[in-house]
Amino acid sequence: MPTPPQTIQLSWTDPTTQEPREPLLTLPVTFGRFLDQMPAIIQGQPVSRMVLLHPRVSRYHALIEWVNGRPVLTDQNTSNGTFVNGARQQRCELAVGDRIQLGEVIIQVQQIPNAQSSPSSTSSAPTSYSAETIYPGVSPASAPPPLNEPRPTPQALSARSTPQPSFPPATFWESQVVSIQALTQSGYFTPGQDEVSYAALGAGLGSYIWIDYLRIGGVKPYQIIALGTQDKPYAKYKQLCLNSQIPLHERLRSNSDSCPDNIWGWPSYAIRESWRAFQKGDVPTSIGLMWQVFAEPTFAETYTPRADNVFDSIDREARRIGWPDIYRYGSIRCVRKTDDGRYAIAYSKGSGEYGYVVAKYVHLATGYPGIRFLKHLQDYRDRHQDAKSVVNAYERHDHVYEHLIQHGGKVVVQGRGIVASRILQRLDEVRRTSRQNVEVIHLMRSPKRFNEGNRYGQAQRLVKNNWEFQPFNWPKACWGGDLRDVLENASPEERKKLLKDWGGTTTADRKDWQELVTRGLEQKWYRLLFGCVQSVCSKICNLQVGYGEVGAAGIQQFTQEANFIVDATGLSAAVTENPLLKDLIERYQLPLIDKKSLQVSNEFEMTALTSADTLSRQAPGRMYAAGVTTLGGPYAAVDSFLGLQYSALRSVQHLAEINAEGLKPLSVTRSFSQWLRWVNNQTP
Asked: 182 burial class (0-12, 13-18, 19+ CB within 10 angstroms)?
């Protein structure tokens, strides 16, 4: 019988996307900052190459290989060194639980499977990513395949069943309903200690807002658990903002009505910022902010809050509601119904430790499943193993601007939404401050004339220079306008048509962005091209973008050279790209909207997952969802702050109606008294 490949399971947080990674990797494994500096083959064996984009990680930093029956780590003579359990090491053996530090990246050894065991004995282990390269922001399913193996087709990828992890065991993983007695006997579950009424899965902004409303409704911290891998509820959102070139002093893509730290939304961020300016004696700024809010969006641009003000306010509210006591670190493996009408959540605690949490009411807010890449750009990265020349706007790509500051260059931008607007603004800042020759080629699929903006009724969006604009009032219109009632009462087919009419790729109706485009066209450092990209290839130091434009003589082929391509087409919203959601969908045959989104009720309940109680006559458990995974349901702007607030309010209100434990209805009296407690920073 042939010897199975030697493997090692590691876990770390991706320094680019802040996403947790727990791959089971085939040895040898290399770590470094640049793909082309790490060997692809060592002693005839293909190498699993891990890219860590951190400034203190060397181009080729460390190697883990199999030596005399043990995994051995070797530092590649780096200046910053490699540390194991806090001690600098040049070469050492690894054991389960060891903590490897490369720069600021901490990698934990989770599991060292027995290389001599038979394949049948390891059938429940995680899928091994042989000879894989982990690109920043790209999940293993979409990363390049092992060497000398063909890349699977999208159809083959979508047809794969979710691989079974090493934990939980098969008796849990393969069941639809699990026994509480079996959980207790497993040693990973302590009755009472690991039981709560409410569990929020994700521990991001959606979870935080839902828990905030539960706490305002009277639920105590010991009745709630928030499971996630980052203790700050805005950590992932903040990283995406920084990656897409929104520093803390810049303004977010959100309006003044969105206050995730305050159920009333008053005083708004605009009023708070105006008051701070007034206290500092800056009366003109204070008055200007108030005028902006009063006159928006007809006579003034919509007010948008500064990123640091929003994050600081969320920190204050998180402390007030007891978030540190509610949050529990955990990488969630899967969720199963229990035989007493609740839900069991299997999760990894890190360091090879695992556990179960059992809750009656579960809230899923996992955010965007991943970063979306245009196919031709992903093909280029797969083929050339070049993650520096072709980047996504949502992954860390500061090296692009650093290069332009030093040398100038040409950048192709794809996408014409709000992210593309911010990238264009950043490129203009580089051009003006560095005084280098920076040229921007904006490649769009097709032109959009001034009278071709999306229509709904008598309303039509403004189009200028092929950009379609709308003010930052979309979430507000969905919340308080008639759009909400229309969508809630519509049939699935009607909803699909309404969202198509209301949707489309737009950017904010901001005067400075519109003037930037006009100025760029006049000064000729910004050019608009139209067409579909046919191929991207590398020629010496430049990229060559081949694209076709439809004209009177048919499709005409063109070639455009550039130093970098920035994909600003957004994030992926397909729920099947999230392993946790994919497992739930497959296990319980959940209905989807257009094969992309979870189907929820007007209360955002996943009714197909209502947990039947087989042991008593108590009310069944409920599961709710929020965020982009519910797109196509009863609310349009689901991925906005107001969208997360609205879904949380509806689901918590529904829980109060069914007399969920410890939760009181949000009456007028309770709302006012709880708002006063917020004003005085008192716990709910």
From this structure: middle
Task: Say whether pLDDT at 128 is over 60.
Answer: no
Spatial distance between the Cα atoms of 202 and 207, rounded to a whole number of angstroms: 6
In a domain, 248, yes or no: no
Q: In this model, does residue 86 exceed pLDDT 90? A: no
Contact predicate 198/214, CB 8 Å? yes
CB-CB neighbours of 659 under 10 Å: 10
- Output the DSSP codes for 90-117: SEEE--TT-EEEETTEEEEEEE---TTS
Q: What is d(CA 640, CA 209) in angstroms, rounded to the nearest whole number?
A: 12
Tokens of 243: 């990656």
Which of 393, 415, 389 has the alpha carbon at shortest distance from 403?
389
Clarify whether residues 494 and 530 are in a common domain: yes
Q: Is the dihedral of CA 27, 33, 35, 41 positive or negative?
A: negative
Q: Examine the fold and report which residue of 525, 548, 571 is the final residue of a domain before the chain moves on.
A: 571
Instruction: List the domain range (segments joined by +) for residue 400.
Output: 374-571
Neighbours of 150 (CB within 10 A): 8
* Residue 270 burial by Cβ neighbours in a 10 Å radius (0-12, 13-18, 19+): buried
HEC string of 561-609 equals: EECEEEECCCEECCHHHCHHHHHHHHHHCCCEECCCEECCCCCCECHHH
408/551 same-domain check: yes
Q: Quick one: pLDDT at residue 114?
A: 59
Q: pLDDT tens across 525-541, in order?
A: 999 998 888 888 886 55
Which of 317-321, 353-357, 612-616, 661-665 is predicted least confidently? 612-616
How many C-beta neighbours within 10 Å does residue 143 have? Answer: 17
CA distance linking residue 291 with residue 300, whole number of Å: 8
Domain shared by 584 and 609, yes or no? yes
Residues 441-460: what's their mean pLDDT?
87
Longest Cα–Cα distance in the chain:
81
Instruction: Supply the CATH number for residue 565's domain.
Output: 3.50.50.60
- Residue 139 backbone zone (phi > 0: left; psi -120 to 50: alpha; other: beta): beta
> From CA 234, how far away is CA 310, in angstroms rounded?
10
User: Are 219 and 657 a contacting pair, CB within 8 Å?
Assistant: no
> Total domain count for the chain?
3
More confident residue, 21 or 667: 667
- pLDDT tens-digit readout, 24-63: 888 999 998 877 688 878 887 888 888 887 777 888 999 9
Residue 98: CA atoms inside 13 Å, Cβ hemisphere, count? Answer: 22
Rounded-to-integer distance, Cα 630 and Cα 604, Å: 8
Q: Rounded to the nearest 10 degrees, what angle do helices 283-295 and 269-279 cross at? A: 160
Unique residue bearing structure tokens 């930052």:
472
Closest C-alpha to 22, from 134, 152, 162, 146: 134
Same domain as 487, residue 348: no
Residues 137 and 118 in one domain: yes
pLDDT at 115: 41
The region of weakest confidence among 14-23, 68-77, 327-336, 636-645 is 14-23
Predicted confidence band at 188 (pLDDT cuts at 50, 70, 90)? Answer: very high
DSSP state of 406: H
What number is the average pLDDT over the span 445-457? Answer: 86
